[in-house]
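Bump. Still looking for Beta-ketoacyl synthase-like N-terminal domain-containing protein structure tokens.
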Amino acid sequence: MRVVVQGLSVWGPGLAGWPHAERVLRREDTWQDGPVTPPPAQCLPANERRRSGPLTRLALAAAEEASQQSGLQPSSLRGVFACSNGDGAIVDSILSAITTEGGEVSPTQFHNSVHNAPAGYWTIGHHTHVPAVALGCYDWSFAQGLLKAVAECLVEKTPTVLVVYDLPIPGPIGKARVTENPFGCAFVLQPDTTQDGICVLDITYGATTTQQDEVLHPDLMKLVPTNPAARALPLLEKIASRTEGTVKMASVPGSLSIAVTPC
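Sorry for the wait, here they are.
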């Protein structure tokens, strides 16, 4: 399956948007750890912006940057939003409330606790009726999300934005499901491979699970196991290098082989 990547975004520790992340991944800039502070979701009305939580803001920041870079109207893009943990902070808060005598859960918290909240905010912000799917595939949410997004892009013959994101989880759940750092990324995929873009991805799915390729950047290697969405880093590193090559990615069940060709 062949698609063109027309837009990219990355938000993680020491990675503030694609132009900066690209330089770090190519080792033109030094990686420096730091807080993840994505910009506000300008697509949302003020009331919706106040109601949205950190997870939604991370997802929308990535989706907005990638769509702006692509030059395509966000309202025209199909959406695939992939997240392993959901909004763990809100889930922890709700569980604490319902296990405390007299505890109450606010409607806003309940509204934001659902797994497809970021996808819903995206469609609200851009007044779009184009379908947006929300996936949760444990540690393989990026690979499974990429497979889903590419399939939709080609079958429906429509540009598609893939958004993958996760945040640390506080409380007892966070001790069982450890996620140490925020991380989010987005890809705008175009089915017409004659269009200009950043690179072409040629993706093959295999039923046998193989070991995932590692990030070559010595500082960024430690980010991959800290967040399921950060498993995108080996592919992002290859794209940033602007060289041809193939990236292997675990996608339990199975695996992906992703051939990258710069445009």
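The two ends are 16 Å apart (CA to CA).

Edit: fixed formatting.
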